[in-house]
Amino acid sequence: MTRTRERAGRLLAVAGLLAGLAGCTGAGGGGGIVPGLPGAARSPGEAIRVSPADGAREVPADGRLEVRVDDGRLERVTVTRTVDGRRSAVPGAVAADGRSWRPAAGTRLALAARYAVDAVALDGDGHRSARHTAFATVVPESRFVGYFTPENRATVGSGMIVSFGFSRPVTNRAAVERAIRITSDPPVEVVGHWFGAERLDFRPERYWAAGTEVTVELALRDVEGAPGVYGVQDRTVGFTVGRSQVSRVDAAAHTMEVRRDGRLLATLPVTAGAPRTTTYNGRMVITELYDVTRMNGATVGFGGEYDIADVPHAMRLTESGTFVHGNYWADPETFGSANVSHGCVGLRDVKGGGSDTPAGWFFDRSLVGDVVEVVNSRDRKVAPDNGLGGWNTPWDRWRAGSALTRPAPVTAPARTPVTTPAPAPAAGP
User: Fold this and answer.
1) What pTM value is reported for the model?
2) Which of 286, 271, 285 is nearest to 333 (CA)?
């Protein structure tokens, strides 16, 4: 008799469990109707409609994101985005009538992301229902990145220009430029200027003030730089302007005046470009510093005129190969009296580089971002996209090269972008 009662109790427990499971088929917990059977009604949870559909994949960035109820009102909607393992809430609001939720104006779906939607609604009788859905957005096949200079956390000179070289040609320049935000403390206006489809430089109207902290925010992820080509970077970097140093090379007088924060530090004797291979005029910016480097005339169009394996104290000024560097092979009397170089600015030095020579002294006091201006040479002015030569462009023309201040893009001769990768060839001594 006892065993019979125990068996009956187990059967009742199983029956109760099955009844409970049947009741869970409607997210609101009532009715026990199984969807798909004849005469089935839509459960309360399904009355909350979500777009994109639950389980959707390859949803485009401009896909519609919406939560809606036909009856009752939405009590709460939470949408969570997961990108590269980082979770964040999608901003949005329920409409005044309570029937729909949409993301904040201007919000686009992130690419290569997963989304989770959780919604709670109240019907006309005050009964709650809930729904959870998930979907994934499309993963683009084509991406682009922007290689930029200077390096993060660098201390630079006051002539530093923030330069981006893009891995793919950019046709939607306004969108890309808008996604790069550069701010400073103390604040100044910073404007971008396009050189062709693969390079974008930023600078203020005048040199940065000493001590300025500059922040570069890249929000390029999912920005469509060209049809079907999207950015991948979403990060913030920065650099510090250490001090102002501007050196003025007078090619006719064979001198270089070095001024720090406006004060004259020294006047150094130099040799500039010979009459057949003159030095560019104009303002140039130091972009690289080498204790020693090789300079081979064959790499810059001078054939076998020179090949020096150990040029000391070399500071690059242009992408085409103009340097300020130490020179140990010329007669010491040359410096300050004659121009004999292949376009570079030479300072007296010794083989291996000496710290007590004019070249060693200048090298030890130079930073990436320092300005070297050449005057009174018989050559033309350096092109603004040859190295960081943008300071040679008047401010109104510089602003005209921004995709945000002028409808039509600026066309300029395509040159190799100034980026931090491998060094470009060196010009001659």
Assistant:
1) 0.73
2) 271
